[in-house]
Design goal:
The protein is built from 14 helices and no strands. The protein is mainly alpha-helical.
Length: about 375
């Protein structure tokens, strides 16, 4: 055996190893993304979003208004989801191509045609031999399994999306557009419901638990935008959390124990999503740590509430300290997620990450 033959054998061994690694890595990524019911960082999904995100960032440079940005970003997650199965099947195709080439005296072109024929079950290319036939069948089975998983994945995601958006749309009835916590409180006061918000806190406590599970196990949901440009799941979350914080700290109403549970459920959910998005935050903030809302902004809201006849607690300093003590638990993650998702304008949440000019413009 001469040096050339030894070199060719070495190349085929390397080709076999590379092919097996590509195929196994793709299978593991598919299992984590489509089957495993828990949060997992999937390199293939992350690559897909990073790759498509590069083109969307270039397109966003030409956007001059929020409506333009929203129209562009509405396609970001759906197009990336279309790219994921293409990327996944392509990796399997090239992985098996290297495996075929390593097994016999075939060219790369013939190995490519053989891999594509087996993966797509076309049957227009084949090579005699037990080893080739076994690998062809395994690739065809793998291709069918991946397609089945992808088909089952989309309905699951859209079911979670529908449940999320139903609550977001219903919140508009109470919180207005753009939504704000003081509007929710004033409308509840006008309808004599200020001391009857237990159902609201219970509903959103369950909602937070659902988005914690769905937005970490189905991460594309994070970037799925609401059907209406002026609404967003993250600004809705901020409104509910701020409303509960105001009710507990500032509004002179009977204590409702569901409100603090709603806040805790909310900030735990947002922190889990933030961790999945690699957003830094303090897991144990102190009650007196600074928050993004100033005392002047808080006082302005109190004036508006008082003018609407909402009963307020007399000790304004303690009320502010209590409100800041609740808000500090979710302040950082709320603003960071709103910035990452390019959420529409909403006071006390997405406006913290907008330019001063954009913050004053209410969509």
């Amino acid at each position: 055996m001469d040096i050339a033959e030894m070199g060719m054998i070495g190349l085929r061994v390397v080709s076999l190893i590379v092919g097996v690694i590509i195929v196994i890595s793709t299978i593991v990524a598919a299992v984590k993304a489509f089957v495993m019911p828990r949060a997992a960082h999937v390199w293939l999904i992350q690559f897909a979003f990073t790759f498509t995100g590069t083109f969307f960032k270039l397109r966003m440079r030409r956007a001059t208004s929020y409506k333009d940005r929203d129209r562009i970003m509405a396609l970001y997650s759906p197009l990336t989801l279309l790219f994921v199965p293409f990327l996944m099947l392509s990796l399997v195709l090239f992985g098996y191509m290297f495996i075929y080439w390593s097994l016999g005296d075939v060219t790369m072109r013939s190995a490519f045609r053989l891999s594509g024929s087996a993966l797509l079950t076309l049957g227009n290319a084949a090579i005699d031999g037990v080893a080739f036939e076994v690998i062809e069948f395994s690739e065809a089975m793998l291709g069918l399994i991946l397609v089945a998983l992808i088909i089952a994945y989309l309905p699951t995601m859209y079911n979670a999306f529908t449940r999320r958006e139903s609550a977001v749309a219903l919140l508009e009835v109470r919180a207005g557009t753009p939504p704000s916590p003081w509007m929710l409180i004033m409308r509840s006061h006008r309808n004599n419901e200020l001391d009857q918000l237990r159902e609201l806190w219970s509903t959103w406590q369950v909602w937070f638990a659902e988005i914690e599970e769905s937005h970490t196990s189905l991460p594309p949901l994070i970037y799925f935008r609401s059907p209406r440009p002026e609404l967003s799941w993250i600004t809705a979350a901020g409104v509910v959390l701020d409303s509960a914080a105001l009710m507990l700290s500032t509004i002179d109403a009977p204590y409702e124990p569901r409100a603090p549970f709603c806040i805790r459920s909310g900030f735990l959910a947002l922190r889990q999503i933030a961790s999945f998005m690699d957003i830094d935050y303090d897991p144990s903030p102190a009650p007196y740590d600074p928050i993004s809302i100033s005392r002047d902004e808080y006082n302005a809201v109190l004036i508006e509430l008082a003018e609407a006849g909402v009963p307020l607690k007399e000790d304004r300093d303690k009320a502010w300290q209590d409100f800041a003590g609740w808000r500090v638990n979710y302040d950082t993650v709320l603003i960071a997620i709103a910035a990452r998702t390019l959420a529409p304008y909403a006071p006390w949440s997405s406006d913290r990450s907008l330019s001063p000019t954009a913050a004053r413009r209410k969509v």
